[in-house]
Amino acid sequence: MKKLLAFALALALCLTAVSAFAEVSLTIAHIGPTTGPAALYGLATLHGAEIAVQEINEAGEFHITLINQDDEHNPEKAVNAYNAALDAGAQVILGTTTSKPCEAVSAVAMEDQVMMVTPSASSEAVIESPDAEGEYKGNMFQICFTDPNQGKASAEYIVENKLGEKAFVIYNNADVYSIGIRDTFVEKAKELGLEIVGEEVFNDDTTDFTVQVSKAQELGADLVFLPIYYTPASLILTTAAAREYKPVFFGVDGMDGILGIEGFDTSLAEGVMLLTPFVATAEDEAVKSFVAKYEAAYGETPIQFAADAYDGIYAIVAAAKAAGITDGMSPEEVCAALVPQMVNIQVDGITGTMTWDATGAVSKTPMAAVIENGVYVLK
Amino acid sequence: MIFLDKLITGISLGSIYAIIALGYTMVYGIAKMLNFAHGDVIMMGAYIAFCTLQYLNLPPVMALIVAMAACTVMGVVIEGLAYRPLRQAASLAVLITAIGMSYLLQNLALMIWGANPKSFPGTMISIPTLSLFGGQLKITGATLVTILANVVIMVGLTLFTSRAKTGKAMRCVSEDRGAASLMGINVNRTISITFAIGSALAAVAGILLCSSYPTLQPTTGSMPGIKAFTAAVFGGIGSIPGAMLGGLLLGIIEIFGKAYISTELGDAIVFAVLIVVLLVRPSGLLGKPVREKV
């Protein structure tokens, strides 16, 4: 009897060991602004990540626990959120969603040697170390393009498709994101012979854009490049409509979300173009399935940020698979195991086929979308 | 033509500052306190108008009435709960309370409506754009209404304070609170009425502000509030025509500064002008110089 019991116990032990071996658990923390002025982005990345986690957990092999920490798009709060996430047992960070907080958190995470994959923080400083040489952090990877790449790709796209001859830039000179894109856009435009007739700036408190818009109008610009977020962009579109000024408005990923503003007359955004790696109406099977699940779960069409976060979770899991991680590793151990794998893996995501170099910057092909009848249409 | 266009934009922006400044100046003139929550009452008014339009699908006139009524009640309640108990306290205590009230209103709005910016519907003021000189000069309906509302409100308030009994009582309280109370004027009631009028004006200002610049979030009232306060000081705080003049000048200076000097320095120019004016005329453009008796 005793022998039988011992045997049964041993068997039970074996079984639990096997099941633990079959399913590696990994805790990922999402950090992003789920409240505050950039909540639209933070909620999108959180929801996108939730869909990916659900799919991976259903497939077995990995069991992901997703924790969420709110940073309110504030650098100090983001560092607190990061510490709270580690205290709650996070091993890898998916975040942060926006650039300024991400720069703050990535500096701390580099000290701690914790791996971070940001879905959408696109400034270059996110992956570069803050020292004078601007060395790369090594623990930090981006799913989205860096700002310089967005500016460069926008200029190339505009010239290639002959969208305009006289370009005007309106950007936020209090925001690293906006300045970063503007700088490379201007540089590339000069190189390609696209004439920039003028530039105007604004800051976070600006609500009156008549001066900026009328200057573009007076200079006869037929294309206005807007490397800015959607809230000021909506005001610029309204001002331009009131003045019956109809150039081509070309935005970047920050423009994504303009159709989601409550009360905004989306007919004003008709014809607005934006550079984006993800369009919800694309014919791709993986995109369709993601969009269907997202709509069923949250009742709205996913924006690019949601898709970036979805791909971010898959990138982390792909690296974890390649590294063969086991249960109970510390964040430092996970970081040491995953980072070398990131440069080897290739992820076929819904935002394109991605590879990474040692700097943490992603390489994938950008696409442009245009707003037609209130939806994004791939060009 | 470009100059004229900028001038009209400036007058339009200035008119909004002027209406907000009227609220500051009335409360200061009569209650001798700076109501820093005024900018946030404007924001609340705009949100209430937004909700009546967007969720209840009521016509714009109803939105205006509902917003004005709600803000009037809000103003009287704020005065009664937060400021009246401090009537005899040091002015610094009242100032801190007003700042606290400002944060309370902002966070209340954050709780009720969330942080996502809302776009104020253009249906609120559906007057077509006026096109002059063969389309070279365009004046939007919102601008026309703003300028008109400003003139009406200023004339109305001036008549009210000089002719109506309550208005005269306000001037008495403003002049000498103790003497007014000895003459049988109910000081508390007069101050409450001042807050009621100021808050109703805030609702109008909120609607006009958001019709011209259609973005609405819990912090919408702060920056215009500060600019309007500057306008009130500029024109001479406590003076109704002063607030109007200060607001208009501030708007025009801001737009001209941005257009002809630099958009980056636009706000800096505004405040630099304020400093210069205060150095030359410490009591503002139309303010009465007050001699301190020692």
Low-confidence stretches of chain A: none
- Order of strands across the biggest sheet of chain A? 7-6-8-9-10-14-15
CATH superfamily of the largest domain in chain A: Response regulator
CATH architecture of the largest domain in chain A: 3-Layer(aba) Sandwich
Distance between the amino and carboxyl termini of chain B: 55 Å
CATH top-level class of the largest domain in chain A: Alpha Beta
**Strand order within the widest beta sheet of chain B:** 1-4
Structural class of chain A: alpha/beta
Question: Major beta sheet of chain B, specifics?
Answer: 2 strands, antiparallel
What level of helicity do the residues of chain B show?
A: over 70%
Q: Kindly provide the radius of gyration of chain B, computed on alpha-carbon positions and rounded to a whole number of angstroms.
A: 19 Å
Greatest interface and its participating residue counts: A-B, 30 and 38 residues
How does this model look, in words?
The complex is a heterodimer of chains A (379) and B (294). Helices cover 44% and strands 20% of the residues of chain A. Chain A has 379 residues and is α/β, with parallel strands linked by helices. Chain A folds into 2 domains: 2-145 and 285-363, 3-Layer(aba) Sandwich (Rossmann fold); 148-276, Response regulator (Rossmann fold, 3-Layer(aba) Sandwich), CATH 3.40.50. Chain A has a 7-stranded mixed sheet with strand order 7-6-8-9-10-14-15, sandwiched between helices. Chain A has a 5-stranded parallel sheet with strand order 2-1-3-4-5, sandwiched between helices. In chain A, strand 12 and strand 13 form a beta hairpin. In chain A, 53% of the residues are buried. Chain B is mainly alpha-helical and 294 residues long. Chain B has a single domain, classed as ABC transporter involved in vitamin B12 uptake, BtuC. Chain B has 11 helices and 4 strands; from the N terminus they run H-H-H-H-E-E-E-H-H-H-H-E-H-H-H. Chain B has helices spanning 2-31, 38-54, 60-83, 91-113, 141-163, 165-175, 177-182, 187-212, 222-235, 240-261, 266-280, and strands spanning 118-119, 130-132, 137-139, 215-216. In chain B, a hairpin with a 4-residue loop joins strand 2 (130-132) and strand 3 (137-139). In chain B, helix 2 (38-54) packs antiparallel against helix 3 (60-83) and helix 3 (60-83) packs across helix 8. The A-B interface holds A 35-37, 39-40, 173, 200-202, 205, 207-208, 210-212, 214-215, 218, 231, 234-235, 238, 242-244, 261-265 and B 2, 5-6, 9, 13, 50, 54, 110, 114-122, 129, 135, 138, 140, 212-217, 220, 223-224, 254-255, 258-259, 263-264, 266-267.
